[in-house]
Amino acid sequence: MSASDQPSLSLGASFFRQFLRHGKALAASPADLLNPLLFFFMVVTLFPLGLGPDPERLSQMAPGILWVVALLASLMVSGKLFASDFEDGSLEQLCLAQHPLAILALAEVLAHWLGTGFLLALVSPVFALMVGLPIQALPVLVISLLLGSLCLTLIGAVGSALTVSIRRGGLLLSLIIIPLHVPVLIFGSTAVVEATRDGNAVSWLALLAALVLASLALAPLAIGAALRISLDNG
Amino acid sequence: MYFDSIAAVIDMNGHGLYVWLAYAITVTLLFWLLWAPLRQLRVRRLWVIAEGHRRAVSDEPQSESAHQRDEADKTFSDSSETQG
Amino acid sequence: MSLLIATEVAIERGDRPLLRGVSLCVESGELWQLVGPNGVGKSSLMRALAGLARLGVEGAIRRQAAALFIGHSSALKRALTPLDNLRLHPACDMPVDDQQIARALRSVSLAGYESVPVGALSAGQQRRVALARLLITRARLWFLDEPFTALDTAGCEWLEQQITGHVASGGAVVFTSHQQSRFGARQHDLDLARYVSL
Amino acid sequence: MWSFIHKLGSPPWFFRFGGSLVRWLLPLTLILLLVGAFWGLLVAPPDFRQGNSYRIIYIHVPAAVVALAGYYVMALAGAISLIWRIKMADIAMKAAAPVGAVLTGIALVTGAIWGKPTWGTWWVWDARITSMLILFFLYLGVVALFEAYENKAAAAKACAVLSLVGTVNIPIIYKSVDWWYSLHQPASIKFTGESAIDASMLYPLLLMIVAFYGLFAVTVVMNMRAELIWHHRQSAWVRQWAGLD
Predict the structure, then answer these.
(1) Using CB atoms, which chains have 3+ pairs under 8 A with A?
(2) Domain layout of chain C by residue ranges
(3) Closest D-chain CA to C12
(4) Which of A49, A152, B36, D205 is 20 to 30 A off residue D55, Cα-Cα?
């Protein structure tokens, strides 16, 4: 049965396979896809209730509100990223794959991002109008959330990999990840603020893009190491 | 010396409260930083000495009950390992 | 050709030493069972030999061939169908088409269950889906941790055939099991009681 | 040289070496702290703008400087433990984390107290103080992660990864907070000014910084010694040290 002439799986095939597997598992439970959107929707409505309905004040704070809520939504979702893989033993098998664990884990993180952060960014204009964000700032908001959510998901994945073997690790995940989210929040919300004032949002988006590239390059290394450590602790 | 009297030192023309409050908090925290490991070392030394005596006691020919308790402990700790 | 060479392996759990000085050389065509009382460290040693655990493991472990590990957890996504689970399995090491998977599922008598989500299957059926991986792998070195648990007699016979077939074709299998020497003379036993470190 | 590095790795040797180090470094540090505090509090002139509240600089700045340096020391120990698997590096990291956290706490508290007379509010969202607050969260994250793991060997490795990720992020965090601060409130004065401070104030400050570095080293070594004893409580050299045999 095990003829050795057959070509073994290439890295690309394994990468796509892992991406598809996580995507299908995520798509199979629509709750996981809807939860972040509903969370975003509900928490955004809290701000006018807390700060008062005055549209002038709300629209002035809109970029900050939208970005903080997007960050919290990403945080809430990051906890579940590797949880199911850890429980059903897929993580163990991932360590045995021929290809580096960091790359395969990156495939899972990207699939997870598509299902959560990406959708959030596309739907965010609806929430933006609720808090009175000027129309001309909407494109920058969507771009900043697209870039930002990828960065937040990658950093959140590092936290998730570190805390996956701890039983009630959710709170701990927030504690160790929020400080790392600060630059993303600053660059993202400032870009949208500049867009509302017709300032140069592009330079802030460029900084955000730089963070995304850095995270794409470095986060997988930390994720791979953290997953192996969590397995030893499990 | 910049100040000419103790009262001036305490008052520091109005800012004394903040300066001395900051230094007081810092001194207590630094003292705790230095004292905690020393106390921990002492506590652990006493534990090691106490453990030494317990071990000395268990080496001599024990009474029946003590022996059984050791046996029970050993098997219990073995089976508590769910899988090998 | 030796597929696995382990020299002077020591296993620690937390900071409590379990085993020390374990040396093992598995040649192709050999079948090894790790034997020892409950809690001596069979599973821990198995995971170390398969390369799953690094922390608390000392000594040199060299695997000369790709390894396959099947443990207690089945590594199956409950929401996916057996077809998807086997096609997209994280440790899958060869391109597989649907016919091969269907044949494998038929071989573990799960024909017709191809598109039923794994979550809806019974524990025994899930176990068989996990074991179906043995038919679609190129790994020559198999590590099976308690593979016979939750299997009925038919399943055990099937598994015995797979193991003997794999060993006959030049592969090697290291497994743990509660039953003693299920393969009789054809298997080598590694009694871990000799390596327990106090 | 290499034999020295190698010996550092052996617990009994490090325990004795640490003991002799602490015996002279601890008194020296205490003397430096007393002299520095006396010099800064009573001898140095007050700042012409802020008056005597400026004297808090002699504990705020040293604590902030050593707290930041402490994080890098912790991350370095983590990197050594991850790369060369040296157990002593794990113990160094576990010992450095709480010390760094307390020093960051000191920097925050003294900064807040200093803000009251200067700007009339207990908490001021100044760039430096905000970055210090985030550094405090980074420290708490490492300490909390260590406590959350049951298998302490895995805990050390996990904290090593987290502190290395933190180290990469610290410059980015500091820069982004600076830009955030300068964007929203460009006009207000710098907190601990880069303005060249007068020599009569600079020397006590440098002395206190050295003292705080000494304090960091002493507390970390003492924590490590206490940890080593617990880690090897069953071994012969510990019983010998406790005076049993």
Answers:
(1) C, D
(2) 2-65+174-195, 82-134
(3) D153
(4) B36
The residues on A that touch C, with CB distances below 8 Å, are 1-4, 6-9, 13-14, 17-18, 20-21, 24-25, 28-29, 84, 87-90, 92-98, 104, 228-229, 231-233
Q: Is this complex's ipTM strictly greater than 0.90?
A: no
The single-letter DSSP state of residue B63 is P
- Biggest CA pair distance of chain A: 72
In chain A, the number of structural domains is 1
Which tokens in the block code for residue C195?
A: 């390596």
Out of A165, A186, A225, the one facing D176 most closely (by C-beta) is: A186
Residue-number span of the structural domain to which A17 is assigned: 11-233
Q: What is the DSSP letter of A89?
A: T
Q: Is C90's CB within 8 Å of A94's CB? A: yes
Mean pLDDT by 10 residues, chain D (245 residues): 78 91 95 92 80 87 95 95 90 95 96 87 88 95 93 91 95 92 64 62 91 96 93 86 77
Look at D229 and B45 and tell me if their CB atoms are within 8 Å.
yes
| Interval A28-81: pLDDT, tens | 888 888 999 999 999 999 999 999 989 999 999 999 999 999 999 999 999 889
Question: Are the C-beta atoms of residues D164 and A206 closer than 8 Å to each other?
Answer: no
CB-based contact, C169 to chain A, within 8 Å: yes
Chain D residues inside the 8 Å CB shell of C55: 151, 153-154, 157
Give the three-state DSSP class for C116. Answer: coil
Helix axes A11-28, A30-51, angle to 10 degrees: 60
User: Is the Cβ of C56 closer than 8 Å to some Cβ of chain D?
Assistant: yes
> Cβ of B84 and C72 within 8 Å?
no
Distance from CA of A25 to the nearest CA of C (A): 6
Amino acid at C84: D
**What is the reported pLDDT for A158?**
96
Phi, psi for residue D219 in degrees, rounded to 5: -65, -40
d(C-alpha A108, C-alpha B77), whole Å: 40
Tell me whether residues A18 and C88 touch, CB distance under 8 A.
yes
User: In this structure, what token pair is assigned to residue D136?
Assistant: 């405090």
* Domain residue ranges in chain B: 1-50
The minimum CA-CA distance between B82 and chain C, rounded to whole Å, is: 7
Number of H helices, E strands in chain C: 5, 8
Is A96 in contact with C67 (Cβ distance < 8 A)? yes
Between A170-196 and D127-148, two packed helices, what is the crossing angle to 10 degrees?
150
The answer to whether the CB atoms of C41 and B78 lie below 8 A apart is no
In a 3-state reduction of DSSP, which class is residue D184? helix
